[in-house]
Automatic annotation (TrEMBL):
Assigned keywords, A-Z: Hydrolase
AB hydrolase-1 domain sequence ranges: 37-137
Any Pfam family matching the protein: Abhydrolase_1
SUPFAM superfamilies found in the cross-reference section: alpha/beta-Hydrolases
Name of the protein described by the UniProt record: Alpha/beta hydrolase
GO molecular function list: hydrolase activity
Protein's UniProt keywords contain Hydrolase: yes
Transmembrane parts of this sequence: none
Length: 296
């Protein structure tokens, strides 16, 4: 059990980051350390909070660890008229990298829907990418079907009802089943914070928009292939090998084949494994970073 309440944990999280403007959207980011920048892209229903420990591990590796809350999630604004699509997020993130001073390039880490978003970003701006690390994601966007626990969010009324049932106790059970392998090592309040960050300000309405705007186009698929098929930067994949949502045998091997990787690093955890395997992921990212000369 934590000595802090959920509100105190979120307040501490917010105080450890900073806000900046991206085209009028008040955007929150964690930005720790100095050195080669490593930009980590989260998925749903998470935010930069997922990477908070991993970024400190990147900092200890002599790197600058950055994670930006996507619009509609975490502590970033949730504008009604934002383009809550994968390509819309990729365009937003490109402008965010410029606001963060990353014009000389950055190393990219992607997870969950941050995979499709990040690969689109990399394909459209390959000269900015210095390395790519892929964490558990789906690659075949054309044929992808959401895991069963996530499908209700696609539908009107049912999605809103499902969101209402997502409270601290139900999220904790989901996180135990699908998120991490050793939830007993995490204070419950830290797990509960994910729910409060998801529903903050709008009750989760923007999250539902995201869930209802998944891009299954061949155009996006072609972009993603371009990002990993003999790109001008090194690529690796690190997989939470016990993930029941995006299992390695299907989803991991698809990434491995698409990126022509001789191996995929497998870690003993589930879907949200940056929560408990941050030092291991950071070490592997740092090893890949050292394969490239410093930016600038």
């Amino acid at each position: 059990m934590s000595n802090l309440t959920v509100d105190q944990i979120i307040a501490r999280h917010e105080a450890s980051g900073r806000c900046f403007d991206v085209d009028g959207v008040r955007t929150f980011a964690l930005d720790y350390g100095q050195g080669e920048p490593v930009l980590c892209l989260h998925g749903v229903p998470t935010s930069s909070y997922l990477f908070r420990k991993m970024l400190r591990s990147l900092e200890s590796q002599g790197l600058r660890g950055i994670a930006v809350d996507l619009p509609g999630l975490g502590l970033t604004d949730r504008p009604e008229d934002f383009d809550y699509t994968f390509r819309g997020f990729a365009r937003f993130l490109h402008r965010a990298t410029e606001a963060l001073g990353l014009q000389d390039g950055y190393h990219l880490v992607v997870h969950d829907i941050g995979g499709a978003i990040g690969l689109a970003l990399a394909a459209e701006h390959p000269a900015r990418i210095r390395s790519l690390t892929i964490l558990n994601m789906f690659f075949d966007v054309v044929n992808f079907k959401k895991p069963l626990p996530m499908r209700p969010f696609e539908l009107p009324i049912l999605g809103e009802a499902e969101l209402l049932t997502l409270q601290h106790p139900t999220w904790y059970l989901l996180f135990k089943a699908m998120g991490v392998s050793h939830i007993e090592d995490l204070p419950k309040e830290e797990v509960y914070a994910y729910v409060d960050l998801l529903k903050r300000a709008d009750g989760g309405k923007a999250f539902l928009k995201i869930m209802r705007h998944f891009d299954h186009s061949q155009e996006l698929q072609d972009l993603m292939h371009r990002a990993v098929d003999q790109p001008p930067y090194p690529v690796q994949a690190i997989w939470g090998a016990e993930d029941p949502l995006l299992d390695f045998e299907h989803f991991g091997k698809m990434v491995q084949q698409a990126a022509h990787l001789p191996q995929v690093h497998q870690l003993p955890s589930k879907h949200f494994f940056p929560e408990e395997m941050g030092p291991d992921i950071a070490r592997l990212v740092a090893e890949l970073v050292r394969q490239r000369p410093p930016a600038g």
